[in-house]
Amino acid sequence: EVQLVESGGGLVKPGGSLRLSCAGSGFTFSDYTMHWVRQAPGQGLEWVSSVSSSSLYIFYAKSLKGRFTVSRDNAQSSLYLHMNSLGVEDTAVYYCAREAYNRGWSWGQGTLVTVSS
Amino acid sequence: EIVLTQFPGTLSLSPGERATLSCRASQNVNSIYFAWYQQKPAQAPRLLIAGASNRATGIPDRFSGSGSGTDFTLTISRLDPEDVAVYYCHHYGSSFVTFGPGTKVDIK
């Protein structure tokens, strides 16, 4: 069974930084493109970033303005999101997701990031 | 940039009724990379349909997907109270990902 477990969320002050992690299990992590998606309170889903299986291709949502960096460690079956210069608009549940080509995405349970003074 | 529009915004039906949810893309999309998700309160999204029409593992057969090009439909043939949720359409590719704004399904 595919399992994705996010961690690293919490309360951070505006302007601060945070690193999120996602541990994958139940599948060969190194075979799949991985994504981060966020959901602000009461809002819809917003794609944040993706990284291909070998980290060759990395993409970000334009709205992030270069503040976030995605990375992965296939040996550890882990995905990361480094977030800098956080603002209140970054408050959201952050999900990691596995892209299974034409078979859709599998999702973790999410980790809540709250940016507040 | 492909934009997905979902309608209606909210659907309120009685148990046993048929629910038809629509998603329209701003340009033709490859249906292979088109999916539908269900999200219940305080839960992560759950894959219902992949490749526009293929039910994911464990999804009841009352859920079905159809469509191609710019117009896609998710149908719940007989609404069950456990189907109360927000439903999102989704298209993804090598360098882009987009989600629709969601359709909220309520029980009357």
Please give a structural write-up.
The complex is a heterodimer of chains A (117) and B (108). In chain A, 0% of the residues lie in helices and 51% in strands. Chain A is mostly beta strands. In chain A, the strands form two sheets. In chain A, strands 2, 4, 5, 6, 9, 10 and 11 form a seven-stranded mixed sheet that branches. Chain A has a four-stranded antiparallel sheet with strand order 1-3-8-7, with no helix packed on it. The model of chain A has no long low-confidence stretch (mean pLDDT 96). Chain B has 108 residues and is mainly β. Helix content of chain B is 0%, strand content 57%. Chain B has strands at 4-7, 10-13, 19-29, 34-39, 46-50, 54-55, 63-76, 85-92, 97-99, 103-107. In chain B, the strands form two sheets. In chain B, strands 2, 4, 5, 6, 8, 9 and 10 form a seven-stranded mixed sheet that branches. In chain B, strand 8 (85-92) and strand 9 (97-99) form a beta hairpin. Chain B is globular, with a radius of gyration of 13 Å. The mean pLDDT of chain B is 96.
